[in-house]
Design brief:
Elements: E1 11-13, E2 16-18, E3 25-29, E4 36-41, H1 45-64, H2 67-83, H3 85-96, H4 100-106, H5 108-121, E5 129-132, E6 135-143, E7 146-150, H6 156-169, E8 173-177, H7 185-195, E9 203-205, H8 210-217, E10 222-228, H9 231-243, E11 247-251, E12 257-260, H10 266-275, E13 290-294, H11 298-309, H12 330-345, E14 349-352, E15 367-370, H13 377-380, E16 387-393, H14 396-404, E17 411-415, H15 419-428, E18 433-436, E19 455-456, H16 463-467, E20 469-476
Parallel strand pairs: 7-8, 7-10, 8-9, 10-11, 12-13, 12-17, 13-16, 15-16, 17-18
Antiparallel strand pairs: 1-2, 3-4, 5-6, 6-20, 11-19, 14-15
Bound molecules: nicotinamide-adenine-dinucleotide (NAD).
The site of nicotinamide-adenine-dinucleotide has 29 residues, from α8 and α9.
């Protein structure tokens, strides 16, 4: 039977696709042709109510299963995702414009990894026993209840699964709202989870903009909110969640440093800088966009980087030989163009790129600025596009101070052959995720998340379990109760 790649309705609620065309239309626009390729509708209050009610109703029975039973369903979903990787990758490419060459290895596969990993540990989630003389305390690891997930547009399949997997493994249910820019992929995650055996209502997807997100975040039935998005949205969602003292995970933006010392392996450092700036056309939260290059290697670095940019193949992202796609939307393209203009007007030296390619499609050249200084806008603000800034440095202590002189703290990287310096730098970086001699890998086994304004909480790894469950302690008295009177 041919697998239908396109979701068949706007929402997935209580185990089935649901449509309600009275909601605000949300067109999905092809990043190459600029034509509409799909249409979904934002959730109306009635749709939001259905999703939350079904998540609330389903959660207790789901939590009553053993962890092994829940894990089996998640692992089955992982297997289905892997089987359909080709189709799901095409859908991810249609949603985002990222090259198929990337989505085939980075999106559905990452979603499957998360479901497999958390499915694997679901059966070993435990509390503990604390002996207190004759008495004792035992702790129960309990789910939080109904969780809300809200996604950004750059990794729609991955974000949906990174939130679903630990939430469901711990016995929670979820209502997930994808970004209005990329509404399609999360629906497939929901469909596959239910095909794998997840009971109706355990994982629901509703569409919409910020107002739908806000309605979910402030609903009294909701125990936890996990947002992937920008810092301004994070502030709003965190504040709204605070009113109900809800648990939060905030995966927010960044302006991460990548420090390249003279002794670095040049080819690796250039590869690292490319991964840190041009993968997904630069639309990656953890990107190392402030590339500090020590003076002794700077000329060689810039020369090799510009040479390597000759191997960029831009074009239709569905062509598997294309390695550089368009931006996700016209809006995002214009934002990035604005930053490029700022770079020029503030005196940065344009070394490569800087231009839109063609008049149709949201294609921008990979862009490199040199002689960037710490106070320039392109060195301070998150651009979220293919713009790499090279900043000069000589001294390790000085570069560390400058690397940390940002309110963001998502990621940081260092390229050097000096072992002690590498670990010294990693320890001193004010960032949640650090890289030594590589950049931008995010395996499910490792915690991922930000410090400072880049967020709170961690996704992935065993650590995520603590963000989707809470400990109840039960004191058990074995001796007569003593009271003062
Ligand atoms: P965004 O902040 O504009 O939107 C994120 C999501 O929040 C969307 O689904 C949006 O509809 C929703 N939203 C907006 N206002 C809301 C409100 N008041 N209440 C509830 N929900 C609301 O972000 P974006 O443009 O979609 O994504 C890009 C941003 O995401 C970048 O800053 C990037 O760094 C960040 N990001 C972070 C990570 C991470 O793991 N740290 C990963 C990917 C992207």
């Amino acid at each position: 039977m041919a697998y239908d790649i396109q979701p068949t309705a706007s929402h997935f609620i209580d185990g089935a696709y649901v449509e309600d065309q009275t909601g605000t239309p949300i067109p999905v626009i092809c990043q190459v042709s600029e034509e509409q390729i799909a249409l979904v509708h934002a959730a109306t209050p009635a749709i939001i109510e259905r999703a939350l009610a079904s998540a609330k109703r389903a959660q207790k029975d789901w939590a009553a299963l053993t962890g092994t039973e829940r894990g089996r369903i998640l692992r089955r979903a992982a297997d289905i995702i892997r089987d359909r990787n080709d189709d799901l990758s095409v859908l991810e490419t249609n949603d985002t414009g990222k090259p198929l060459q990337e989505t085939l290895v980075a999106d559905a596969t990452s979603a499957a990894d998360a479901l497999e990993y958390f499915g694997g540990i679901a059966g070993s989630l435990t509390g503990e026993h604390v002996q207190l003389g004759a008495d004792f305390v035992y702790t129960r690891r309990e789910p939080l209840g109904v969780c809300v997930g809200i996604g950004a547009w750059n990794y729609p399949t991955q974000i949906a699964a990174w939130k679903a997997a630990p939430a469901l493994a711990c016995g929670n249910s979820m209502v997930f709202k994808p970004s209005e820019t990329t509404p399609l992929c999360a629906l497939k995650v929901a469909e596959i989870l239910h095909e794998a055996g997840a009971p109706a209502g355990i994982y629901n997807v509703v569409q919409g903009m910020g107002d739908v997100g806000h309605a979910l975040v402030t609903d009294p039935r909701v125990a936890k909110v996990s947002l992937t998005g920008s810092v301004p949205t994070g502030r709003k969602v965190y504040a709204a969640a605070a009113d109900g003292i809800r648990h939060v995970t905030m995966e927010l933006g960044g302006k991460s440093p990548l420090v390249i010392f003279d002794d670095a392996n040049l080819e690796d450092a250039v590869s690292g800088a490319i991964l840190a700036n041009f993968y997904s056309s630069g639309q990656v939260c953890s990107n190392g966009t402030r590339v500090f290059v020590q003076s002794g290697i700077k000329d060689a670095f810039l020369q090799r980087l510009t040479e390597r940019l000759n191997d960029v193949k831009m074009g239709d992202p569905l062509d598997e030989t294309v390695n550089f796609g368009p931006l996700v939307s016209q809006n995002q393209m214009e934002i990035v163009q604005g930053f490029i203009e700022k770079g020029l007007s503030e005196g940065a030296r344009l070394v490569a790129g800087g231009e839109r390619v063609g008049t149709k499609g949201y294609f921008l050249q990979p862009t490199v600025f040199a002689d960037v200084t710490d106070d320039m806008t392109i060195a301070r603000d998150e651009i979220f596009g293919p713009v790499l800034s090279v900043l000069d440095f000589d001294d390790e202590e000085d570069v560390l101070t400058r690397a940390n002189a940002t309110d963001f703290g998502l990621a940081a990287g260092v390229f050097t052959q000096d072992l002690t310096r590498a670990h010294r730098m990693a320890a001193a970086f004010e960032a949640g995720t650090c890289y030594i001699n590589t950049y931008n890998l995010a395996p499910v086994e490792a915690p991922f998340g930000g410090s400072k304004l880049s967020g709170v909480g961690r996704e992935n790894s065993k650590g995520a379990v603590d963000h989707y469950s809470e400990m109840k302690s039960v004191y058990v008295a074995m001796t007569p109760v003593e009271a003062p009177f």
